[in-house]
Design a protein that fits this description.
The complex is a heterodimer. Chain A is mainly β. Chain A is built from no helices and twelve strands. By secondary structure, chain B is mostly beta strands. The N and C termini of chain B lie far apart (35 Å).
């Protein structure tokens, strides 16, 4: 069975600095998707970035980028120029071709002014 | 745009009661999902549907039932509420191709079983 592990329950970063959130996963499948979701206090689940496993190039979305290491089964999220609005729970998730998605337990990110 | 709408937003049930959590989407999405989020945890998939008339179990289906009679609606039924079902429930939808498309989430339903 697939698993997703986020080893950092909480992290803090100074405003305007860069922070990296870690995620590892375990799977025997070769074709899958990886996601980072943001959940602010409003409870909304917001897709931050998505990576398809067959693509070697790391996905980027403005200040958000990933470091996808397929062999190591690692999928970290880098947030550059952190802003107060980035404070939230961040969930790493794995999705397979059966369209099932598995979430990690999350990392709570605090932004220090 | 309404997107994914969940009702109610909050509900308190007594043990053994039943209820239906409603979810409707106006984006004509084929795929719909129900998740639960326990305190301090990530989301766990309860049931999902790839189209009207088709449903399948996710990771934690016990104690729940779903139906998908229309593309728009995907209700989640709790038949005999138990304290272990206290959680926040999220409905989501995505277009053709399932997870190859972004999932759109509702605002969640906070359910307490006392």
């Amino acid at each position: 069975a697939q698993t997703v592990t986020q080893s950092q329950p909480e992290m803090s970063v100074q405003e305007a600095e860069t922070v990296t959130l870690s995620c590892t996963y375990d799977t025997s499948e070769s074709d899958y998707y990886l996601f980072w979701y943001k959940q602010p206090p409003s409870r909304q689940m917001i897709l931050v970035i998505r990576q398809e496993a067959y693509k070697q190039q790391n996905a980027t979305e403005n200040r958000f980028s990933v470091n996808f290491q397929k062999a190591a089964k690692s999928f970290s999220l880098k947030i550059s120029d952190s802003q107060l609005g980035d404070a939230a729970m961040y969930f790493c998730a794995y999705g397979n071709r059966d369209d099932k998605i598995i979430f990690g337990k999350g990392t709570r990110l605090h932004i220090l002014p | 745009n309404a997107g994914v709408t969940q009702t109610p937003k909050f509900r308190i049930l007594k043990i053994g009661q039943s209820m239906t959590l409603q979810c409707t989407q106006d984006m004509n999405h084929n795929y719909m999902y129900w998740y639960r989020q326990d305190p301090g945890m990530g989301l766990k998939l309860i049931y999902y549907s790839v189209g009207a008339g088709i449903t399948d179990k996710g990771e934690v289906p016990n104690g729940y039932n779903v139906s998908r009679s229309t593309t728009e609606d995907f209700p989640l039924r709790l038949e005999l509420a138990a304290p272990s079902q206290t959680s926040v429930y999220f409905c989501a939808s995505s277009d053709r191709g399932g997870l190859r498309q972004p999932q759109h989430f509702g605002d969640g339903t906070r359910l307490s079983i006392l």
